[in-house]
């Protein structure tokens, strides 16, 4: 089922005309209403009435997460607060979160794009839908909720976690569709297994999985253990929340972008150059219809490709690949966003350690683990004595524990800390320093035994 057939199967030439019209109106809208954009356009000499086609897009400036932070909390809003009916915020750990606002019209658009996602995932009106994305400031729960109601699903707002209750609902309500993070679907599979429940006896046809990176290998595993389709959904708070794109269950070969609302391009993350269709690069999104927080060329930081070839499901919308990585260095550890700069900032006051460190992210028993390896100072190393510098040494244990607590307070997640002798952490070779090793894509310990 295609939820909005006229818009989702529109010939590309017509779609591009619609996008051009909307882009022209948007540029005038933000110039008139958002001082930040007026100043940026003026500085760059962008004349808002000259932007009339999507071909003009590269002339426009980018917007970044920092711009939202610099105008915290509501400084980029384009409408007065009495027109804003909802606020959400991104899952920042320390510092200021990114705040996003919605007018009534924005909420309707959000419900519309999420309704399309459900149809893409194989849901039909009347299906029972178990929504295991978190309700709250996170956009996952409420975003999916409104889309589900719009499509006409029996919506269960169970929210995230509480696996025993999720299983009870799956069994007693016989949910047809479930939405959660991909890693949680595996936790659920484990719990079903240990309860002796055969997932094939449940009614779920489709799991709608997103909000964090996952792989084709994980899909194979999830589909095999849960006896259901696993489809990918993508989105980000700044742009709307879930609903930017979603795979079709027929193809499962890239996520259909809601291109009448979101104008998407791929750029070179280093140079900012707009890249031809099919290139790997950073996804940049211009919101074509949002009223409260319209964004021009928002840099998502997500690396992907875009494919405009026709899809067998009949939709004409372009498809984005899985998120292949992050352009910046933000890590998502068990759903919490962590920036290496936060780790540095937390450790900077500790006299015993040098500014050099290594980060290792891995996955054990399906849980992400962040290991921080700070290097101790030469003075500390000499004071302990080279031959006594070992994880068992009492002083090393004390310092390790102290750093672990400091990091937990700063990041709100548990990390493993291992001290390195002087000179062992990576140094810049002239270019960008590579402090991070992320083995999550390669580890096989989260595969079925
Ligand atoms: O995660 C919105 C969402 C909720 C999407 C529920 C899908 C389902 P944020 O918390 O702002 O919003 O995080 C956005 O999460 O820039 C990506 O890096 C990552 N992300 C989201 N979906 C996917 C996905 C929500 N399917 C950030 N694959 C984005 C990989 C994803 N990464």
Broad structural category = alpha/beta
What would the average pLDDT be, to the nearest integer?
A: 92
What is the class of the largest domain in the CATH system? Alpha Beta
pLDDT under 50 segments (min length 5)? 443-449
Q: What is the CATH superfamily classification of the largest domain?
A: ANL, N-terminal domain
End-to-end gap: 37 Å
CATH architecture of the largest domain: 3-Layer(aba) Sandwich
Task: Give the neighbour order of strands across the main sheet.
Answer: 4-3-5-6-7-8-9-14-13
Distinct bound molecules: 5'-O-[hydroxy(phenylacetyl)phosphoryl]adenosine
CATH topology annotation of the largest domain: Rossmann fold
SS elements, strand count: 21
Individual helix count: 12
**Percent in strands:** 15-25%
- Residue share in helices? 25-40%
Number of domains: 2
Main beta sheet strand tally, sense and closure: 9 strands, mixed
Q: What features would you describe in this structure?
A:
The chain is of the alpha/beta class and 449 residues long. It has two domains: 1-329, Rossmann fold (3-Layer(aba) Sandwich), CATH 3.40.50.12780; 331-446, ANL, C-terminal domain (GMP Synthetase, Chain A, domain 3), CATH 3.30.300.30. The chain is 31% helix and 23% strand. It has helices at 5-8, 12-33, 35-44, 65-70, 104-120, 139-151, 163-172, 182-194, 216-226, 340-347, 378-384, 394-411; strands spanning 84-89, 99-103, 128-131, 154-156, 177-180, 206-210, 229-236, 241-247, 255-257, 262-267, 281-287, 298-304, 306-307, 319-320, 325-326, 331-333, 336-338, 353-364, 367-376, 416-417, 436-438. Strand 8 (241-247) and strand 9 (255-257) form a beta hairpin. Helix 10 (340-347) crosses helix 12 (394-411). The longest helix is centred in the first third of the chain and has 22 residues, at 12-33. It is globular and about 75 Å long. It starts with a helix and ends in an 11-residue tail after the last strand.
């Amino acid at each position: 089922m295609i939820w909005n057939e006229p818009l989702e199967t529109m010939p590309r030439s017509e779609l591009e005309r619609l996008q051009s019209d909307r882009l022209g109106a948007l540029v005038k809208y933000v110039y008139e209403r958002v001082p930040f954009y007026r100043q940026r356009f003026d500085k760059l000499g962008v004349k808002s009435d000259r932007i009339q086609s999507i071909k003009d897009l590269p002339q426009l400036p980018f917007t970044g997460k920092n711009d939202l932070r610099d105008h915290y909390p509501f400084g980029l809003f384009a409408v007065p607060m009495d027109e804003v009916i909802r606020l959400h915020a991104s899952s920042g750990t320390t510092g200021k979160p990114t705040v996003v606002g919605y007018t009534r019209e924005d909420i309707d658009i959000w419900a519309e794009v999420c309704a399309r996602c459900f149809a893409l995932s194989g849901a039909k009106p009347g299906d029972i839908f178990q929504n295991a994305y978190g309700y709250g400031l996170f956009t996952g729960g409420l975003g999916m909720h409104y889309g589900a109601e719009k499509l006409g699903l029996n919506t269960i707002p169970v929210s995230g976690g509480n696996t025993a209750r999720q299983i009870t609902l799956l069994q007693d309500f016989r949910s047809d569709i479930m939405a959660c993070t991909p890693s949680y679907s595996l936790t659920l599979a484990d719990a079903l297994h240990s309860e002796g429940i055969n997932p094939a006896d449940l009614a779920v046809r489709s799991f709608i999985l997103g909000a964090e990176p996952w792989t084709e290998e994980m899909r194979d595993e999830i589909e095999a253990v849960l006896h259901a389709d696993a489809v990918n959904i993508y989105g980000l708070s700044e742009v709307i929340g879930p609903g930017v794109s979603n795979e079709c269950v027929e193809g499962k070969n890239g996520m259909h972008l809601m291109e009448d609302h979101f104008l998407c391009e791929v750029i070179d993350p280093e140079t900012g150059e707009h890249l031809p269709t099919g290139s790997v690069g950073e996804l940049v999104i211009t919101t074509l219809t949002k009223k409260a927080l319209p964004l021009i060329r928002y840099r998502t930081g997500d690396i992907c490709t875009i494919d405009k070839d026709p899809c067998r499901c009949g939709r004409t919308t372009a498809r984005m690949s899985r998120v292949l990585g992050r352009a910046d260095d933000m890590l998502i550890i068990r759903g919490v966003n962590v920036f290496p700069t936060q780790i540095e900032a937390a450790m900077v006051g500790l006299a015993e350690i040098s500014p050099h460190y290594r980060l290792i992210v891995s996955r054990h028993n399906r849980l992400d683990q962040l290991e921080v390896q700070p290097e101790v100072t030469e003075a500390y190393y000499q004071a302990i004595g080279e031959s006594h510098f070992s994880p068992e040494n009492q002083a090393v244990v004390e310092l390790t524990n102290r750093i672990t607590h400091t990091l937990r307070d700063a990041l709100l997640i548990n990390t493993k800390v291992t001290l390195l002798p002087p000179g062992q952490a990576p140094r810049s070779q002239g270019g960008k320093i590579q402090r991070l090793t992320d083995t999550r894509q390669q580890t096989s310990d989260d595969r079925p035994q």
